[in-house]
Design a protein that fits this description.
Flavocytochrome C3, Chain A, domain 1, binds flavin-adenine dinucleotide, FAD/NAD(P)-binding domain, about 475 residues, alpha+beta, 2 domains, eight-stranded mixed β-sheet
């Protein structure tokens, strides 16, 4: 039989890199299988917010915070949902993760930790975000990873895709089958760690688990291979029901549906000058409501989880840019050719261009303008600088978009993959988005995807040889 590795890690991303680094430092011989031609995974795409308490950076700024407050805030934001023991372990270890990243050279923005507004806000400044986004985390982790590769403790196989977990005659994980180019081979190991991300990029699994089309922006290798491989061995699939979308995104006219962008719909960053109109031609919320969670829940109730953001020429001229200050030629290109960017000289023309009922659209705009004139809006909106009154009129279609997959395989607190009957599949572990973003509940909580991926990857790497009772003696 070919070499038997101490630890086979599938996925050199957010969870896989720290897992490999810590396992290798502890003396394990590790092989890392990566489908892409480079390490880093979703960190190449993510914005990179992480959270944690009692950190050196909080201490420096005199911020009074602790894991209990972090945990309480997570539970407040997610309305008491999700896996509380898992969240508690995260809250207790998240600060050490931030400090570790800091110690190895990662730096957030100068004023961080801060309150940030992309998700429902924490009560205390405990979000850390680097200027150059999540790629800064790869830049901090890569030298440590490379050092272990150089020492011969980690072997990295890029452009190699795991297709299944292989088992021994007891049903214990014993390695993985991989495909590289045309070639398939088996890699054997005493411990198999699935850190190969979620299914955010898989139209097939979005359809299967959520009955929804794929709309979002994600690492292309997030195809759910790990979830499928673990489920093939009987792993329990959980948390998909906690799905909630982000508010909201539109497709980039230059890349079509391949890249979805978040326009600036966060009132704390840009007050809305437009009105939001659903596919029935009706408004459905106060566009300036400052709660991200409320906005996301309102959007979930709308037909096709979509709306048109509608404005007129005066708003186009006076409002700060909705479309990230796109140059005029890009805006012209979008409105000339892309079905999600429409304009019309009159409201009848705009209705025809968007497919909205002209009667409903005119009624909605008339009602909004009446309220705007006397500063009393039917939905309680406060910020209403201008009516929507003079053509040409513009409409940009926004959708509920997703950057993470909510469902994942169940594990115990030692990251062992569990069957529905609660029994662990021997020698099989999972961390990162593999275990479902929805494990953190029915909400987006700031920094609870990258943070837990690094934290559980780190804990697993530090302890896998002892957590696996078969390995306990070997590790002594
Ligand atoms: C646009 C965007 C913004 C985000 N912003 C934030 C944020 O600010 N804060 C936050 O907490 N989270 C954020 N997230 C989510 C977060 O980035 C991910 O949930 C997290 O990075 C996932 O970590 P992971 O280790 O599970 O997966 P990854 O980091 O994606 O790593 C998985 C690795 O496995 C590889 N792989 C996949 N399949 C196979 C296979 N079959 N064989 C071998 N290798 C395989 C992949 O190529 C990848 O390298 C964001 C995500 C996106 C897309």
């Amino acid at each position: 039989m070919s070499k038997v590795w101490d630890v086979v890690i599938v996925g050199a991303g957010t969870a896989g890199l720290p897992c490999a680094i810590f396992a290798a430092k502890r003396g394990a011989k590790v092989i890392v299988i990566e489908a892409a031609d480079k390490i880093g995974g979703s960190l190449w795409y993510a914005s990179g917010q992480i959270s944690g308490t009692k950190t050196k950076l909080q201490a420096k700024r005199g911020i009074d915070d602790n894991p209990d407050k972090h945990f309480a805030d997570i539970v407040r934001i997610n309305h008491g949902t999700g896996d509380h023991p898992f969240m508690r372990i995260f809250a207790e270890n998240a600060g050490a993760t931030v400090d570790w990243l800091y110690d190895i050279g990662w730096r957030p923005q100068d004023e961080h930790p801060a309150i940030t507004y992309g998700h429902e806000i924490y009560t205390t400044p405990r979000t850390y975000w680097a200027k150059d986004g999540a790629i800064s985390i790869v830049n901090a982790l890569a030298p440590l990873f490379d050092a272990e590769v150089k020492k011969g403790n980690i072997t990295l196989r890029l452009s190699t895709r795991m297709s299944e977990v292989i088992t021994d005659d007891r049903g214990a994980a014993a390695g993985v089958r991989v495909i590289a180019g045309e070639k398939s081979d088996d890699i054997h190991g005493r411990n198999v760690v699935l850190t190969c991300g979620g299914y955010a990029a898989s139209a097939e699994l979005w359809g299967k688990f959520h009955n929804r089309p794929l709309r979002g922006y994600f690492w292309p290798h997030a195809q759910g291979d790990g979830v499928k491989a673990a489920m093939a061995l009987g792993a329990e699939f959980k948390w998909a029901d906690n799905f909630i979308p982000t508010f909201a995104g539109t497709s980039d006219p230059d890349t079509g549906d391949k890249k979805w962008i978040n326009t600036i719909c966060t009132p704390q960053l840009r007050q809305p000058w437009e009105i939001y109109v659903n596919m029935n031609g009706a408004r459905f919320m106060a566009e300036d409501n400052s709660s991200v969670d409320m906005r996301e829940r309102a959007l979930m109730q709308q037909p096709d989880m979509a709306f048109w953001s509608i404005y007129d020429e005066a708003i186009r001229e006076k409002a700060p840019p909705l479309l990230f200050a796109w140059p005029k030629d890009k805006q012209d290109r979008a409105f000339a050719s892309h079905p999600d960017y429409r304009m019309g000289a009159s409201l009848d023309e705009l209705a025809a261009a968007t497919g909205l009922s002209a009667a409903a659209l005119k009624h909605t705009i008339e009602r909004y303008n009446l309220g705007q004139a006397v500063k009393s809006d039917a939905f309680g909106r406060q910020f209403m600088p201008l009516p929507v009154s003079k053509g040409p009129f513009y409409a940009v279609k926004h959708y509920a978009i997703s950057v993470v997959s909510f469902g994942g395989v169940n594990t115990d607190m030692k990251c062992r993959v569990l069957r529905a009957n609660g029994q662990a599949i021997p020698n099989l572990y999972a961390a990162g988005e593999m275990v479902g973003f929805g494990r953190f509940g029915n909400a987006y909580v700031s920094g609870t995807s990258i943070g837990p991926a690094i934290t559980f990857g780190r804990l697993l790497g530090e302890q896998i040889l002892t957590w696996n009772t078969n390995q306990a003696q070997a590790a002594e």
